[in-house]
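Weekly modeling sync, notes
Attendees: S.R. (lead), two postdocs, one rotation student

Agenda item 3: backlog of single-chain predictions. S.R. asked that every request posted to the team notebook include the full sequence so nobody has to chase files. The rotation student volunteered to paste the first one in as an example of the format we agreed on. Action items at the bottom.

Example entry:
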Amino acid sequence: MPQPKVVAIVLNYNGRDLTLQTLASLEDLDYPELEVVVVDNGSEDGSFEAVQEAFPEIHQIRVEVNKGPAAGMNHGLRHALAGEADYILILNNDIEVDPAMVTEMVRAAESAPEIG
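Predicted structure, as returned to the notebook:
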């Protein structure tokens, strides 16, 4: 039986170094059906290019005009829903994750469909 598809959305605004650290952490996740998307919310610090260079496999959405975090995240959510994500993980660009985080979250959600 295939595993549920998870889309992790990372919102970035002028946080090049933090975003790169977060993406490096996400690379270590042990969940196979994971798509990582970076929404670049009008950054002017070279974030978009840095992510493209360091993580060419990651899908980026470039928002030209920053209209706030909710508006930026909506771009990522539309992408995830269009791609038929079973679960969506919303992340800020200043975190590091445990390699088993997504696996454990999906396991919990699948074992109790009434949550989430």
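Discussion: group reviewed the output briefly. The chain has four helices and four strands.
Action items: rotation student to repeat for the remaining queue; S.R. to check formatting next week.
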